[in-house]
Design brief:
It is built from 4 helices and no strands. The chain is mainly α. The radius of gyration is 15 Å and the shape is flat.
């Protein structure tokens, strides 16, 4: 089980990397970030597929997309200087609560 969660964590990190490269690709006009998009998303989906061998689909997808969203927002705020308002913070808090409840279900 630990290996499956490790693969899920790697899938999340790689997806956030791919999303960050997507921002840096400037509409797919910069070749190096485009390669990062392809490598990041391709590797993320591969790791996700491996995690799905041992974990349920609903839990994996909700965790992958939820934690990925939270980390992507953090990257946007810290690396790209994007603003986060009160509604955004509340939405992230609700997302965290939902992920904790979903992961306690197993």
């Amino acid at each position: 089980m630990l290996i499956a969660y490790t693969l899920l964590f790697l899938a999340i990190v790689l997806e956030v990397f791919g999303s960050s490269m997507l921002k840096l690709s400037n509409g797919f006009s910069r070749p190096l970030p485009v390669l990062g998009v392809i490598a990041g998303y391709g590797s993320a989906f591969y790791m996700l597929a491996l995690a799905l061998r041992d974990l349920p689909l609903g839990l994996v997808y909700a965790t992958w997309s939820g934690v990925g969203t939270i980390l992507t927002v953090m990257v946007g705020v810290y690396l790209f200087r994007e603003k986060l308002n009160k509604q955004g913070i509340a939405g992230l808090a609700i997302l965290v609560v939902g992920l904790v409840l979903l992961n306690l279900e197993k």
